[in-house]
Amino acid sequence: MSQLPLNAAEDLINANEEWAQSIIRDNPDFFKDSAAYPQTPKVLWIGCSDSRVPAAVVTASMPGDIFAHTNIANQFHSFDDNANSVLSYGVDPVGVEHVVLVGHSGCGGVIAAIEAAAAGPVEPHNPLTRWLNPLIRLVRTLDLRGLPEDEAVAKVVEANIFRQVDNICNSEPIVTAWAAGNNVFVHGWVYDLATGRIRELVVRSLPSVCS
């Protein structure tokens, strides 16, 4: 049987081998040390699943630097046990000091929510529309009339970041941490795909009160 050509998954395995060897050349004990001790990242990144915004790559971070959770359109829903469990575990026992909620320009989830909001009432008939339903409702509260598409998307991206920061601040893990005097900072960042730069929109901390 002839050898099948490499596919994208196999390319990743080969790239991983090269990457691991390059790390070992610079620091022979890096992986042994990483495996031997508990993780102690200071940052929890809650971002979008978009492949163009990999947390470790865009921040030049190494394994162990960032505790991460991603989903479509960087949402933080009160009903989402997945996100809440990541936040809870990140705050205690991992001990992160900064939670960063990261949106980005040209977000496909935001564009889908804008289109759904314009189309009228949405019946959440599949996982994506159910997931985006809170964002669709947020879009309907914003005045996007007359805005070019890119400006409308940018406005919703930023409004979404502020909303998700509020949701994180009002979550049980953060409320509990702040009540105990644990000053975890909650940040709202936006990443620009066209420039590769991160900009901070908001930061909240004890004793800030989130709406």
TrEMBL record:
It comes from the Eukaryota. One of its GO terms (molecular function) is carbonate dehydratase activity. Gene3D superfamilies: Carbonic anhydrase (3.40.1050.10). Zn(2+) binds at residues 48, 50, 104, 107. Its EC number is 4.2.1.1. Its cofactor is Zn(2+). Binds 1 zinc ion per subunit. Pfam families: Pro_CA (PF00484). Keywords: Lyase, Metal-binding, Zinc. PROSITE patterns: PROK_CO2_ANHYDRASE_1 (PS00704). One of its GO terms (biological process) is cellular response to carbon dioxide. It catalyses: hydrogencarbonate + H(+) = CO2 + H2O. Reversible hydration of carbon dioxide. PANTHER family: CARBONIC ANHYDRASE (PTHR11002:SF76). Belongs to the beta-class carbonic anhydrase family. This is Carbonic anhydrase. The lineage of its organism: Eukaryota, Fungi, Dikarya, Basidiomycota, Agaricomycotina.
